[in-house]
Amino acid sequence: MENILEILFGTLIINNLALKKFVGLSQLTRPGQDESETLTLGLSAAFVMLVSSLASYGIHTFVLLPAGLTVLNTLVNVVLMVASAAAVMAYLKGKKPEHYAALKNALPILSINSAILYLLLTNAQNELDLPTVLATSIGAPLGLLFAFVLYGAVKERLAVSDTPKAFKGLPILLVYAALALMALSGLNGIF
To answer: Which spans are transmembrane here (predicted)?
Structure first.
């Protein structure tokens, strides 16, 4: 159990997919998000990542590995990502139409999110056991949500600050990402 908590904390903060691995940044750079949009998009990405990761583990362990078809891993994981993203879009459209209207252009990006694919392929490649996959499937989405909230706060702050013209937009967000990575790298070696 102690090891599982270390893996969970490690994927949440120390090995954050968006801040350390620089995957899944496509949603972070979207302009014009407020707090509610950022939180909804982050929770949607977290849900897609969690469901896809657990389904990928089951299919990889019980179907592809015994049949010797691990070469189909990427294709199966992409199909899982698209299906999970479609389920999230359908849920938001039916239950929260105001959030769906604000995010309808960004939600399809969830179906090809590199952070989700990275997690699915890494879990399959390392052939992790179920508790470890569960810990990474919870920690990585929460870490991505953490990065979304951080980027959202930075965007709000930058909207009212006097940023030099050369740094407006994406360049200043990348500078922020580098600073956040340096801050988080100070946690390396804790676990």
So the answer is: 39-59, 71-91, 103-121, 133-154, 166-187
Rounded Cα–Cα distance for residues 158 and 169 (Å): 9
CA distance 83 to 80: 5
Own/partner long-range contacts of 170-175 (Cβ < 8 Å, ≥24 apart): 170/29, 173/28, 173/29
Length of the chain: 191
Say how many CA atoms lie within 13 Å of 142 toward its Cβ. Answer: 14
Chain Cα centroid distance, residue 149:
12
Instruction: Note the pLDDT of residue 30.
Output: 57
Q: What does the mean pLDDT of the chain come to?
A: 79
Sign of CA dihedral 117, 118, 124, 125: positive
For the chain, percent of residues with pLDDT exceeding 90: 6
Q: Return the amino acid letter for 164.
A: P
CB 24 within 8 A of CB 115: yes
Query: Confidence class of residue 27 from pLDDT cuts 50, 70 and 90?
Result: low
Dihedral over alpha carbons 13, 135, 24, 111 (to 10 degrees) = -160
Q: What are the DSSP calls for 144-176, one per residue? A: HHHHHHHHHHHHHHHHHS---GGGTTHHHHHHH
Query: CA angle, 178 as apex, 74 and 4 as ends, to 5°?
Result: 55
